[in-house]
Amino acid sequence: MAAVSSWNLVFTRPSRQRSLSSSSSSSSSALSWARSLPSFPSKSHLRFAPGASRTASPTVLSLLDAKPTVLVTEKLGEAGLDLLRAFANVDCSYNLSPEELCTKISLCDALIVRSGTRVTREVFESSGGRLKVVGRAGVGIDNVDVSAATEHGCLVVNAPAANTIAAAEHGIALLASMARNIAQADASVKAGKWQRNKYVGVSLVAKTLAIMGFGKVGSEVARRAKGLGMHVIVHDPYAPADRARAIGVEMVSFDEAISTADFISLHMPLTPATSKVLNDEVFAKMKKGVRIVNVARGGVIDEEALLRALDSGIVAQAALDVFTEEPPPQDSKLVQHENVTVTPHLGASTTEAQEGVAIEIADAVIRALKGELAATAVNAPMVPAEVISELTPYVDLAEKLGRLATQLVAGGSGIKSVKVGFASARGPDDLDTRLLRAMVTKGLIEPISSVFVNLVNADFTAKQRGLRITEERIVLDGSPENPLEYIQVQIANVESKFASSMSESGEISVEGKVKDGKPHLTKVGSFGVDVSLEGSLILCRQIDQPGMIGKVGGILGEENVNVNYMSVGRTAPGKQAIMTIGVDEEPSRETLMAIGEIPDIEEFVFLKL
Ligand SMILES: NC(=O)C1=CN([C@@H]2O[C@H](COP(=O)(O)OP(=O)(O)OC[C@H]3O[C@@H](n4cnc5c(N)ncnc54)[C@H](O)[C@@H]3O)[C@@H](O)[C@H]2O)C=CC1
Ligand SMILES: O=C(O)C(=O)COP(=O)(O)O
Hints:
alpha/beta; binds 2-oxo-3-(phosphonooxy)propanoic acid; seven-stranded parallel sheet; serine biosynthesis; Ado_hCys_hydrolase_NAD-bd; 30% helix; plastid; 24 strands; PGDH_ASB_dom; single chain
């Protein structure tokens, strides 16, 4: 007999090899789809911030009441804070330096920011895995390193709807006040002057307004501008044409928009593609005397190019709420320019919008901390509530099949290619499998690594480990009463600890279905089995003969290991059979070795779910 290591026992007999293995796995409490998301940690996650006192820190002490901690780094409406306080310890710390934020974050489960906090990769790295959700109390997420969040399994949610009207109204306010020199005239009167000839404005009616970015804010600006009698054209490569038809505006190309407009209003997000989209070359194509409004992001304009365009008269006026650097330098020539009207990023700053945004983000963060899927997730699939409730039992099944399959791989094989089959009578468009695939990935990876996998980082983690997961849809006949008939997980190009788990085509293959709301294993390799996926499992291959169940059951009984389920699947009477035994407790190594010693058992494996 080969040497016995602590978690991987291999028995070899002259005529055949049998294996008995156990792989470590994370706890298997009542599972639900919620486990696919980062949820509020247990006390074992409590840790001290670097340099924090282990006895005196009130923040550390407050953690001991097992409520999650939410750090709010910018002003948030009271209604949202009240919701958060009912669920969590809320730490409102404004004006933190980047270093202070990195120190504090290791004590926080959630972070809520607005546009003034940069949530960098360092923030996620400093959190030591505790940060589960970043809530952006507003729309733009350009200040959050979403890739770093995803890599760390941290959900990012925003509040995309509550400040739309405020931003649109601010855009219209800037448009009108720019056209009529309101800010300059106000300053002039307050300085004791009365310059009626200097501040003659331009009219809006019948002028062409080009809206760049026809999303939520852009659409509302379009509606309002039409009400002012303007001719509105829009440019947005991704907006649906029926939205333009519904509002009664014309969709045009980028070049047409910028070359025919009297006014240009920017409403696209800041992305690598939109960065400095208004630059020298583009200003050169504009109508002389064009007027520009920016309530989107400073970075979509090359600010130095804008200054040149203002000085040369191509741009007559600009009204800016947002800047590349916020606040902009005091001596900024752009800010000081006499034809430029500025506001300090006030687009979302109305009482109504701030209350709405605060409630929206508090709700999303609380849901995320409870492990629920957020409707406004930025870096995870948004799965509608009805789909979630329908898929809940299959989520558990998917993770357990992944766990089983990965534990069947013989050490050193290295998993590279996994195929997940979804058998359903539903049409492919009628079944959202993203959540299930993430859970199979979780099951595959977690038992063999220290990585925490969830819906947010499943695809990233698989890719990083060189694990290719493909999906196959097995279309069944019949009426689609259930979303899924069975799920199949196959690992190719590996050896198995349990040879009988190999399918005829040479992959490790396990299959399961949901029965009475519970996950069941229904096939291992080409053997049909039927065992509820609870507790742990022993799979044995033997020559089909009477008395085998009794022998194995007897050994387990002697050690008080409760057998919760047993099933035998065989190729033909008297030939090979697979006995599947579900056990509540984990048998000792001695017990497992005693089972391995039963002469007619050819191979067996112990698997933790
Ligand atoms: N100043 C402020 O306080 C506020 C600023 N904002 C900013 O306004 C912008 C728009 O916000 P929402 O309308 O809520 O977002 P949204 O996501 O509803 O709309 C953005 C639109 O821009 C389009 N777009 C993307 N790339 C584009 C490109 N290269 N050219 C043209 N269009 C492009 C998208 O297809 C989308 O339709 C965001 O940058 C947001 O951060 C939003 C609220 C307040
Ligand atoms: O929602 C947005 O994108 C905004 O720009 C609003 O920013 P704020 O939350 O006011 O810092």
